[in-house]
Amino acid sequence: MKARNHLTTHLLIVITIAFFCFYVPSFKNFFISLFDPFKNNLLIMLIGLGLFFLGAILPDSDSFNRGSYIFYTKFAFLAYIIRILEYPLRLVTWRKKGHRQSLHTIVGIAFTSLVIAFLISFIYSLFAQSNVISDSFYLWVACLFSGQLLHLIEDKIVSPKWKIRLI
């Protein structure tokens, strides 16, 4: 699946959730309770939304030829960080290097979500004078993880024979 298809699907999901938040009171209450600690900080929410969309293309940074769209965006440095993280992940997951290998597993997306969210939280803490591990860190991990998990689900829909694996 191409990056633009992943990004379009993610955008449609965000629009659908926004629609339900406006028109279904119980759904709205659920989302308000999730994001209540961050309601006064728009930057934290925007970073989370950005990480959700980054998750649409981040798992494809495992391609052999750097043919993934992420290598041609402003986030290319993250793709190279993920390529470095792919090496220890390959040892843990016992997978070879390549597309839809270690970065396309639940362990892979969990690990990359933690590392990227930690880096962003560290940078944010320098400017906001907050703790690195805070509520925003957990929100950002959840946003990036859910974006990457959705990427895997989309790949599964497009290629039914391919399996989403834990390791």
Could you walk me through the main structural features you see in this protein, from its secondary elements to its overall organization?
By secondary structure, the chain is mostly helical. It has one domain. It contains six helices and no strands.
The major β-sheet equals:
none
Can you count the beta strands?
Answer: 0
Instruction: Give the number of helices.
Output: 6
Q: What is the approximate shape?
A: globular
Q: Low-confidence segments, ≥5 residues, pLDDT <50?
A: none
Strand content: under 5%
Q: List the helices and strands in order.
A: HHHHHH
Cα gyration radius (Å): 16 Å
- Whole-Å distance between the termini? 22 Å
The residue-averaged pLDDT reads 82
Q: Decide which structural class fits the backbone.
A: mainly alpha
Descriptors:
single chain, 167 residues, mainly alpha, 66% helix
Give the structure's gist in a few sentences.
The protein is mainly α. It has six helices and no strands.
